[in-house]
Amino acid sequence: MAKGQVKQAQVKIKQDDFEHLCSIQCTREEICAFFGISKDTLLRWCKETYGTDFDTIYKEKRQMGKASLRRTQWKLADKSVPMAIFLGKNMLGQVDNPNDLKSDDKGVKQIIMIPASDMASHFVDINRDIDQRLHREYNLRGGRGSVKSTFVGEKIIELLENNPRMCAIALRKVGNTLKDSVYQQLEWGIDKLSETYTDLRNDYVSTKSPLEITKSSTGQKIYFRGADDYGKIKSIKPPKDKYIGIIWFEEYDQFAGPAEIRKILQSLVRGGEDFVEFFTYNTPASNQHFVNQEILTPKPTRLVHLSDYRTVPVEWLGQPFIEEAEYLKATNLKIYENEYLGLATGTGGQVFENLEIREITDEEINTFDYIYQGIDFGWYPDPFAWTKMCYDESKRTIYLFDELLLNKTSNEDAWAKLKEEKKVTENDLIIADSAEPKSIGDFKMYGANIKPAEKGPGTVEYSMKWLSSRTKIVIDPNRCPNATREFSNYEYEKDKDDNYISAYVDKDNHTIDSVRYALNNIWRKKGQ
Questions:
Q1: Omega before 383 cis (within 30°)?
Q2: Which runs of E-coded beta strand occur in 151-238?
Q3: CA within 20 to 30 Å of 123's CA: 150, 358, 463, 522, which one?
Q4: pLDDT tens string 236-258
Q5: Are 280 and 251 in contact (CB under 8 A)?
Q6: 372 versus 7: which is more confidently predicted?
Q7: Highest mean pLDDT range out of 11-25, 103-117, 189-203?
Q8: β-strand 166-172 against 243-250: which pairing, if any?
Q9: If 0-12 CB within 10 Å is exposed, 13-18 middle and 19+ buried, where does residue 65 land?
């Protein structure tokens, strides 16, 4: 047997792999490279396996791949506007520009979409999410030059064009800032889309008094309001058969807080079933700012998106902008990270800089060997706080994965809830605040395996330093929203001149104290 024949006999081509490569339109050269074979070997194998030549079998398997792709596209078109647009253009003859319609196509409704050339790459995925309505609230945070407001300004016009019952409203905290910000941004969005859809600009009428933009052909309106005059927000009456379906809070961090936002939305979100809400802002440095607090608790209807200037084309921002950003990066990294990358870098007084806020899965919990539980007693307004965690001593890492906070709840009812809701048993050791011996006695009487934390001079300071010096404190925000908030917000005490000092505030620290008590036996060990 010739040397070449021996080598070919050793080649193993899996038929399933070959057919899959054909279905995804791989070339003959790519298939040969995948299996590490020559063209002649592939042709001979096809003849032996299928009884025909490569070109014939390749064409057959390639068509199967196209059919599979087409089935997938039809399914996606039910949820994906871009896919519906694609199929509409390629199978129904629809076009972007009505001037390009054939005479027998004049009744076809065009679908408007932002051209890819208008969109920074970091907005591609969120744009798809909006089109599919996977969320209602879009929290767009970021740094300078991230063009988030530019994206929203054009996206709102696209949404109006494709949803003729919708009107829109753009809000700022102060009304006299509207004309030079969101109004101009939406005017720009109309002009920008008009570069692709030539008749679009002529369909919009803009007025300064009142400050409005109206789409003439449908009567749809874009309203502009400041939160400093709530009466003007509440009094908006959209045209007949229309509703405010698009809401934009620009410079969201400047609003008064969740209560004000809730009040505004209660007045606006009515009259329809399809709503899109945008919240755009530059991320505040302080972790305690309400916009940074808000995103710590996941919400199914909300998508949080972080963007920065680094994926924006340089020609959009200008080289001087890039140079200024890079200079700040070299001279003051922390301010750069906040102002240009949109990170909440803190104010310098944060106690726990070792937090990792993420999901802790059931599978991960099942691997935990040592479980600890702690209680900080309370009634009202200070709550009863119970937490559950694992401490991995080899990694110096705390995993906080369960909590229960109660107000105005008796010790008996609290123990009942722990047993029923958290499945705590009489065998589970709980370490609690020793300042409440009566409450500890109550829990013992109910059957709990509970003991007081050992205290002494300096134990608060020592235990807080111990917690903050761990490699990580991992907290699951879904399972432990209160602990996420407390640990993320907790800052050192300030003196009368507003300077941070090495002291710990005894406020909003109930889950923190509960964790200190739970791990009492560990941090009291020498050398730990």
A1: no
A2: 166-172, 204-208, 211-215, 221-226
A3: 358
A4: 999 999 999 999 999 999 898 88
A5: yes
A6: 372
A7: 189-203
A8: parallel
A9: middle
Kindly report the length of the chain.
Answer: 528
Which tokens belong to 118?
Answer: 């208008």
Looking at the chain, the domain(s) classified CATH 3.30.420.280 span 355-523
Whole-angstrom Cα distance, residue 53 to residue 63? 16
What is the CATH number that goes with domain 355-523?
Answer: 3.30.420.280
Question: Within 10 A of 170 (CB to CB), how many other CB atoms are there?
Answer: 25
Q: Chain-wide mean pLDDT for the chain?
A: 87
* Per-residue pLDDT reduced to its tens digit, 302-314: 999 999 999 999 9
pTM above 0.85, yes or no: no
Task: Residue 332: count other Cβ atoms within 10 Å of its Cβ.
Answer: 12
Distance CA(173)–CA(369), nearest Å, equals 51
Q: Is the pLDDT of residue 189 over 90?
A: yes
pLDDT in tens, 254-271: 898 888 999 999 999 999
Cβ–Cβ under 8 Å, residues 241 and 187: no
Measure the CA–CA gap between 35 and 41, rounded to whole angstroms: 10
How high is the pLDDT of residue 62?
79
Outline where DSSP puts E strands in 343-462: 355-357, 371-376, 384-392, 397-406, 429-432, 449-452
Tens digits of residue pLDDT in 44-74: 888 988 898 888 888 888 777 666 666 666 6
Lookup: tokens for 492: 């050192």
Query: Which residue is catalytic, options 251, 337, 339, 491?
Result: 251
Rounded Cα distance between 128 and 122, Å, is 11
Q: Where does residue 182 rank: exposed (0-12), middle (13-18), buried (19+ CB within 10 A)?
A: buried
Residues of the chain with CATH 3.40.50.300: 116-330
The pLDDT value given to residue 424? 94
Pick the CATH number of 116-330 from 3.40.640.10, 3.40.50.300, 3.90.226.10, 1.10.10.10: 3.40.50.300
- How far CA 517 is from CA of 189, 435, 451, 473, in Å, comes to 56, 11, 10, 15
User: Is 373 strand, coil or helix?
Assistant: strand
Question: Please, are residues 161 and 220 in contact by the beta-carbon 8 Å criterion?
Answer: no
Q: How far apart are CA 144 and CA 217, in angstroms?
A: 37
Q: What are the pLDDT digits (tens) for 127-137? A: 999 999 999 99
Q: Which helix (H) or strand (E) is 138 found in, with range?
A: strand 137-142
